[in-house]
Write a structure and sequence with these properties.
The complex is a heterodimer of chains A (477) and B (57). By secondary structure, chain A is an alpha/beta fold. Chain A folds into three domains: 48 residues, no CATH class; 213 residues, Rossmann fold, CATH 3.40.50; 188 residues, 3-Layer(aba) Sandwich (Rossmann fold), CATH 3.40.50. Chain A is built from 17 helices and 16 strands. The relative contact order of chain A is 0.09. Chain B is 47% helix and 14% strand. Chain B is flat and about 40 Å long. Chain B has a two-stranded parallel sheet. Chain B is an alpha+beta fold. Classes of the chains: A alpha/beta (477), B alpha+beta (57).
Chain lengths: 477, 57
């Protein structure tokens, strides 16, 4: 799209010609940089072909407005919006006025717009999931970046997409299933928004006959928001598990049907336990295996190798890993620090123990997110490999609808190259990874794990476990 | 009368998609009714014209 932002980017990389400069947001700009004229000619020759839809489908019935779509499909009940943020609130408002709930993937929607939309939704008995909502599962249907999980009795309300993905995948892997997972957007629990969508989601799950227990996953809510929401949560007729990552206060000292946990693993484990007649498979790692691995990895290290470098596609994983490391007494720098942790002065350059959220704005402004394009992460893996102080790389791989087709495979060449760099220096680089996903995801969970293991990584089913293993090794160096 | 949110949770989504076409495609793969809007910014993306349009409509 010929938006101002996109044209600025093209200008920065030196490919904005006069024709593209005059393009409007309704125009599609194709800009190419090639090593030779032959390559350019080859691409230009095929461009019309590539722009044709691969298959005909009902979804591609040509309508140009939301109103027209509603007219063509009058039973619609949800609008999925991923257009640029500057236009998104306008369309979301139209959707609500047409009586449609909204899954708002777009970010860069202002706080004022968010509050306005959410109030309007509540007036109409609808919900706005988002803005910046990555994941939802409604009646077993994955929306946005979601994993294929079986249906079951566990309901979820989550402030982050990857948090929902991890929880729902772990529930599936532990043998249970999800009734609905409702995303709220990351700002919903802030004092300004006050959990407007959370309240709608809680009401919806409380009334839903298929939901037996409700898990609430989020970064710590704002103080005022929490004070306002706690009485409502306490009044919930169903059991509730709260997982506010990085939150240190106790919410439910009396227990009962309300429980709090520290990590997404614990939330999944507890939820499955609560709804299963038999105890679920433990979501904990084999400590003997970890000790053997640690012993082996320690032996190859040069004396300068001390630090963990976590490179994350999932913001929640970066956040949760900081909590896990903090509990192990390891101080980490981050571009998205847990309260109390130091901020990386330059997100593009790690120092000491660093955990980097590569999905943060500074990495994704006008560039694809690392869940769909691994280039930025591969470059960073190579860079970390050149640092003689780095001992452990900590990575997350996220499967599911709309993620990259082979996210583990995309990283393997960079992992092998970084390991090679370390060994040529006389050391060794350890790699710990987690794979978030299920055996029903399109990427083939087993194959993803195998690819990482073949590249020498120690692979865990959850990000918290991977962080724990990285800490275990780092503390013994 | 049941709230629209309750209906959504009970019936599952019947969706209208604006933006990334892959989101519509992933719903289709799950056998969900979805219609994709061939969306373009109204008024050529001109914010002033859009505001005037909003006033008029």
């Amino acid at each position: 799209m010929g938006t101002g932002k996109n044209k600025d980017l093209l200008r920065e990389i030196g490919v904005l010609g006069s024709e593209a400069a005059g393009a409007s947001p309704q125009d599609l700009i194709i800009a190419l940089k090639a090593d030779s004229k032959e390559v350019l000619d080859e691409i230009l020759k095929n461009i019309d072909l590539w722009l044709q839809p691969a298959t005909e489908s009902r979804a591609r019935v040509s309508v140009r407005t939301l109103e027209e779509a509603r007219h063509r499909q009058p039973r619609s009940n949800l609008t999925v919006i991923s257009i640029p943020g500057e236009y998104a609130a306008r369309e979301a408002r139209k959707a609500l006025e047409l009586g449609l709930s909204v899954f708002l993937f777009s970010d860069h929607v202002s706080l004022e717009e968010e509050i306005f939309l959410k109030k309007l939704a509540r007036e109409k008995g609808l919900i706005v999931m988002g803005p910046d909502c990555g994941t939802a599962l409604i009646g077993g249907v994955g929306i946005g970046f979601a994993n294929r999980v079986r249906r079951g009795p566990i309901g979820v309300i989550g402030g982050s997409g990857t948090g929902i993905q991890e929880f729902t995948s772990l529930v599936h892997r532990a043998g249970s299933g999800i009734s609905h997972a409702i995303g709220t957007g990351s700002r919903d629990f802030s004092d300004a928004v006050g959990g407007l969508s959370f309240l709608s989601a809680l009401e919806g799950l409380e009334e839903d006959p298929g939901t037996k227990i409700i898990a609430i996953l989020s970064k710590p809510p704002g103080k005022a928001a929490l004070t306002a929401l706690l009485p409502r949560i306490s009044a919930c007729r169903k059991p509730v598990i709260t997982c506010f990552l990085g939150f240190r206060e106790r919410l439910w000292p009396n227990g009962g049907r309300f429980k709090e946990v520290r990590t997404l693993d614990e939330a999944a484990s507890l939820a499955v336990q609560a709804v299963s007649e038999t105890a679920p498979p433990l979501l904990s790692f084999d400590s003997r295996l970890l000790e053997e691995w640690t012993q082996k990895e320690r032996n190859g290290k040069a004396s300068a190798q001390k630090f963990i470098r976590g490179l994350f596609a999932g913001g929640t994983f970066c956040y949760q890993a900081q909590q896990v490391l903090r509990e192990q007494g390891i101080e980490v720098y981050s571009n998205a620090p847990l309260p109390g942790n130091p901020e990386l002065p330059d997100p593009f350059s790690s120092r000491k123990h660093s955990l980097v959220d590569l999905g943060a704005d500074e990495f994704t402004d006008r560039r694809p997110h690392p869940m769909i394009d691994s280039r930025v992460r591969c470059e960073r893996i190579l860079k970390e490999g050149e640092d003689p102080h780095v001992a452990v790389l900590l990575l997350d791989i996220i499967l599911g609808f709309n993620s990259a087709p082979d996210p583990a495979g995309d990283l393997v060449p960079a992992i092998l190259a970084a390991k090679g760099t370390a060994s040529r220096r006389g050391g060794s680089l350890s790699v710990v990874a987690s794979v978030c996903g299920t055996d029903e995801d399109p990427q083939d969970l087993k194959r993803q794990v195998r690819r990482l293991e073949e590249a020498g990584a120690l692979v865990f089913p959850s990000s918290a476990q991977a962080a724990g293993a990285a800490a275990f090794l780092a503390k013994r160096l | 009368m049941e709230s629209p949110l309750k209906q959504l949770l009970q019936q599952g989504p019947i969706a209208i998609n604006l933006g990334l076409q892959i989101f519509a495609a992933s719903l289709e793969i799950q056998a969900i009714e979805v219609i994709h809007v061939n969306w373009a910014p109204p008024a050529g993306g001109d914010p002033e014209l859009m505001a005037i349009l909003d006033e008029l409509l």
